[in-house]
Amino acid sequence: GQNIDQPTEMTATEGAIVQINCTYQTSGFNGLFWYQQHAGEAPTFLSYNVLDGLEEKGRFSSFLSRSKGYSYLLLKELQMKDSASYLCAVNAPGAGSYQLTFGKGTKLSVIP
Amino acid sequence: GAGVSQTPSNKVTEKGKYVELRCDPISGHTALYWYRQSLGQGPEFLIYFQGTGAADDSGLPNDRFFAVRPEGSVSTLKIQRTERGDSAVYLCASSSGQVGAGNTIYFGEGSWLTVV
Q1: B99 and A42 in contact by Cβ < 8 A?
Q2: If you measure CA to CA, which chain B residue comes closest to A33?
Q3: For residue A105, how many other CB atoms are within 10 A of its CB?
Q4: Which residue in A35, A47, A51, B41 could disulfide with A62, CB within 3.0 to 4.6 Å?
Q5: pLDDT tens track for B17-74
Q6: A91 vs B56, B100, B109: nearest CB
Q7: Of A1, A5, A3, A2, which Cα lies nearest the Cα of A72?
């Protein structure tokens, strides 16, 4: 089966840095995605990792360690608009190479 | 269109009724997906289309759920004899290629279904 774990909620201060962790146990691995979802809106793509290491994209970075089944999303210079749920999703051949298996999401609250 | 379009955005129906949810994917995207998201949960895979055919419908919870994509573009998710447990957001998504090759899935805003 596929199992993806991430913290349910996090709170951070405007201007700070926050790291959202994701661990996964899947049947094979084809890549890991991070999505942002504001309340009542569609998930929007943030990042994709398939090889070990850090991918940086502006204020957002994502890290992957395949041997540890671990990823994190790093958000820098937090803004109030970053308050949202962050979804970790894995593409694994065991579940069909066209499927994404999602975690439950981490609800991030940015406070002044 | 510019993005994935779903209608209706909200639907309230009585238990036992039939419901249709429509999805118009991004133009040119051959892959289309339906996911279901309950409150406090991540999206859960329902069905995947490549072109007109359902390549994988293993996520459909039971035979009350059915989806079609007759011309390889617009898709309709059909739910018969709705139950209160069917209440959720039904998300449609599309991609230009196989997810395993790193292609991104783009989601629509979802259809919020409430069964009373």
Answers
A1: no
A2: B104
A3: 26
A4: A47
A5: 999 999 999 999 999 999 999 988 999 999 999 888 888 898 999 999 999 999 989 9
A6: B100
A7: A5
| Chain B residues touching residue A89 (CB < 8 angstroms) | 42
CB under 8 Å to A29, separation ≥6 — which residues? Answer: A66, A90, A91, A92
Closest approach of B16 to chain A, Cα-based (Å): 26
Q: Which two tokens stand for residue A71?
A: 């990823």
Facing B91 at nearest CB: one of A42, A48, A97: A42
Q: Which two tokens stand for residue A27?
A: 């049947």
Q: Strand, coil or helix: what is A93?
A: helix
| SS3 at position B98 | coil
Which H or E run includes A56? strand A53-57
Q: Which of B33, B59, B99 is facing A91, going by the closest CB pair?
A: B99
Using CA coordinates, name the residue in chain A closest to B4. Answer: A42
Element (H, E) at B10: strand B10-13
Residue A80 has phi, psi (to 5 degrees) of: -60, -35
